[in-house]
Design brief:
Blueprint lengths: L16 E7 L2 E7 L11 H9 L5 E6 L5 H9 L3 E7 L2 H13 L6 E5 L11 E6 L7 H14 E12 L4 H8 L3 E10 L2 E9 L2
Helix pairs in contact: 1-2
Length: 201
Amino acid sequence: MQEQYYTSDPTCESRPVPCAFPYRGHGLNFMTDAGVFSKGELDVGSRLLLDALPALSGEVLDLGCGWGAIGIAMAKANPACHVTMADVNRRALQLSRENGERNGVLGRLRIIESDGMSAVMDCTFDAVVTNPPIRAGKQVIYQMFADAAARLTDEGALYLVIRKQQGAESAVKYLKTLFAQVEKLDKSGGFWVLKASRPIR
């Protein structure tokens, strides 16, 4: 059985593969690896999510950061933000550290081992950004959404991407129980990019 990328300690053999992509005027270079989501390339969902994001500032959480594509791109393009990057996968976290240094933003990153938001529930964020691990199951990702709503500022927002065929419509319904406003920022290639704001207290 194939090992899932959302396990804490991947046992598959390390096979590093480089990946590079441009983002808002910056050329970004990464190292990816086996046992981590989207080895060797920026997946379509993450690309759509990054392209839909507004300018960000303050405290930002990249939830389920993987090898660091989203969090590092946000930090590079938004000098006024400090990015916390959280993931359960230790191989992913090590790659994020190395990739943060490789792209010159490590000083504005806080990289934390966390199962969902469990290790950052004492923090407050101006934005939470995630390409959630759909294969972990609805219960897991809905808990991520609920925890994000609880730890966002009143003016904060959750940004996420989800395939329409993997539960986007039901995710919107659930998000509307947590947030007063849920918007579709993009609907391309079978994905929905969502913004959920005004968390309900």
